[in-house]
Amino acid sequence: MAELPSAFWSGWVAVITVASLIGVFWLIYSIYFTKGGRDAEEPSPVWDGNLREGEHPAPLWWFWLIFASLVISVIYLMLYPGLGAFGGALNWSQGGEIDRRLNRYQTEFGPVRRLVAEAQLATLQEDAKLMASAQRIYDRNCAVCHAYDAGGQANLFPSLTDAAWQWGGQAAQIEHSIRHGRLAVMVGWEAALGEPAIDALTDYTLALGNGAAAGHPAEAQYMQFCAACHGADGSGNPLLGAPDLTDDASLYGQSPAAIRHSIGQGRSGEMPAFGERLDDAQIRLLVAWLQRS
Ligand code: HEC
Ligand code: HEC
User: Fold this and answer.
1) Rounded CA gap, 187 and 172, in Å?
2) Which ligand is nearest the CA of 266, by number?
3) Which segments of the chain have a pLDDT < 50?
């Protein structure tokens, strides 16, 4: 009870608790074992013509029941926190209990988790049970955005099943995406270049996808404004998260309208960081699961 405002209040809580216990004991004792109450001479009242109130006390086992619970309360208050700031003889606390359980968890599972965190991906991928727990970790943490089949959704959350990796598909790159998150920044160009240029660049991007970009009227503009991030050949740059514009995969959709929106208004997708929420073993399992073929 360290959070009690002062020793003064702690003292009061203790005094009131002890006084209540003594009070309850005195009450039941006086009911069962002291002579008193109504004078024996005084006739007991009669109700409704023939209902006599009578003087029978409650059965004696009630006394023992209440007495036993008082004894248990006293023992409890001696062992556990309850009497003001007194921590109890066992020194038990909720925080301490959590620490103890965490420690037990670490000693029981710590070595296994370290093994998993340092294992070869191939070894993990061969273990069906580990892959099943990887899938559970995925379902719980990632599926809301990337969908249960990891196929992505809503033209907002990328597919994690195809060969196209915006931020790179090597184990270390995927691990970085999960652990630290990713923030993609592509500013919109409509304000700077005007509508006709955006239309032309949209057409150029579509042409990139069809392998027909060479000699396109917007080629010079693309080289000037876009190539620094997306590459002269449109193949993207995983360091910047700039997607490959030539492949079939696309994050925000293949339609001319979606592409036009990306170019004109910009895009800024954010993958949240999971380094604090998942431990090394869980992240390792996810990387293995995402890279399995
Ligand atoms: C709140 C939604 C959200 C959640 C939850 C989420 N992600 Fe993402 N993730 C995104 C978005 C959005 C992107 C794309 C960021 C961008 O535009 O570059 C992304 C990108 C990624 C990438 C990079 C893809 C690429 O092509 O390089 C990986 C890998 C990834 N997420 C894995 C995961 C895993 C594993 C989890 C679960 C631990 C997860 N994500 C949970 C939204 C989410
Ligand atoms: C500063 C680097 C940068 C520049 C310059 C840039 N982009 Fe991007 N572009 C990106 C990034 C990063 C993304 C991914 C945005 C996201 O994931 O939210 C992207 C996304 C896109 C997309 C959407 C791709 C998809 O999969 O849906 C298109 C289309 C695109 N850019 C075209 C262009 C064109 C055309 C230009 C030139 C006018 C251009 N970009 C200039 C960095 C850049």
Assistant:
1) 27
2) 2
3) 1
* Alpha carbon distance, N-terminus to C-terminus of the chain: 55
Q: What are the tens digits of pLDDT across the range 75-107?
A: 999 998 888 888 888 888 888 888 889 888 888
The tens digit of pLDDT for each residue in 6-46 reads 778 888 888 999 999 999 999 988 888 876 555 556 677 78
Q: Which atom of ligand 2 is nearest to the CA of 193?
A: 38
Phi-psi label, residue 9: left if phi above 0, alpha if psi -120 to 50, beta otherwise: alpha
Whole-number Å distance between alpha carbons of 38 and 250: 92
Atom 6 of ligand 2, residue of closest alpha carbon: 226
CA 222 to chain centre: 43
CA distance 225 to 230: 10
CA separation for the pair 168, 160 (Å, rounded): 11
Among the atoms of ligand 1, which is closest to the Cα of residue 138? 37
Distance CA 200, CA 180 (A): 36
Report pLDDT for 37.
Answer: 53
Number of other CB atoms surrounding residue 287 within 10 Å: 23
Dihedral of alpha carbons 194, 200, 203, 207, sign: negative
Q: Which atom of ligand 1 is nearest to the CA of 243?
A: 26
Alpha-carbon dihedral sign for residues 176, 177, 179, 184: positive
Per-residue pLDDT, 2: 54
Ligand lying nearest the CA atom of residue 267: 2
